[in-house]
Design goal:
Helix content is 47%, strand content 19%. It is an alpha+beta fold and 246 residues long. Helix 5 crosses helix 6.
């Protein structure tokens, strides 16, 4: 029997946090350790691990590699696109492609949370504590920007959606719409459409492992297989055959 290099689990956000939070998650390395390729997804995360403690992770433009030691576990809470800035009280673009110690953002409040996480018995308990901490912040935080949430939904369904059309439908200018998306997501609607299309590509490949690359490219919204190949290399750092085989 082959031992998996890593195991990954998700749990949905509690209803009270659903406007801001997508899920809680756990990544645990196998006995030989694991190098995890983190794909861009338009999201920000609050995460904890034994080696680096509690950190806020901003939106990344392209994939990066995260190395886990044998048996190491990382616990995180993933925000929805545009969900983190109201809870974190930090513009998304200020954390773009950055990992920032939580205490640098929230001082003693974060230090108290980190100390409690260190004493917790496992990832499930840590996830509940992190969600509880975010829930307390949500009670005094504004809701995510509805315009940004609508843009995220639109480009997730149709990556070719026109920024001008979305702006017209919202009754704002295209520059205004882009500024609001950058502030809340970390980059503009065109980049968001590209990373969400990549996420949809991976999800399709996982759901239908026998589907060919041309079929996946068509269903994910790429112009053709060459377009899929270009985007995988540019955003994920791998050709689609290697990325989707993972």
């Amino acid at each position: 029997m082959t031992t998996p290099a890593a195991t990954y689990r998700e749990a949905p956000a509690p209803p009270g946090l659903a406007p801001w939070v997508a899920c809680a998650w756990e990544l645990r390395a196998g006995p030989d350790g694991h190098v995890h390729r983190v794909l861009p997804d338009g999201c920000m995360d609050l995460l904890w691990d034994e080696r680096s403690g509690l950190n806020a992770v901003g939106p990344n433009l392209t994939a990066f590699l995260a190395a886990l030691e044998p048996g190491a576990a990382v616990t995180g809470v993933r925000m929805r696109p545009g969900g983190a800035p109201p809870l974190f009280d930090v513009p998304a673009e200020a954390l773009r492609e950055a990992t920032v110690p939580a205490e640098d953002l929230w001082g003693d409040d974060a230090r108290r949370l980190a100390a409690r996480l260190e004493g917790d018995r496992g990832p499930a308990e840590r996830a509940l504590r992190m969600l509880g901490w975010l829930g307390a912040r949500a009670r005094r935080a504004p809701r995510p920007d509805p315009l940004v949430a609508e843009v995220a939904r639109t480009v997730a369904d149709d990556p070719r959606a026109s920024v001008g059309r979305m702006a017209d439908e919202a009754g704002v200018g295209a520059r205004h719409l882009r500024r609001r998306v950058v502030t809340q997501v970390g980059y503009g609607p065109r980049r968001l459409a590209r990373v969400l299309r990549l996420q949809r590509t991976v999800a399709l490949a996982e759901a239908e492992p026998d589907a060919g690359l041309s079929e996946i490219a068509f269903r994910a919204g790429f112009a053709d297989q060459a377009h899929l190949s270009h985007e995988c290399r540019d955003l994920a750092g791998l050709p689609p055959s290697r990325l989707l085989a993972r």
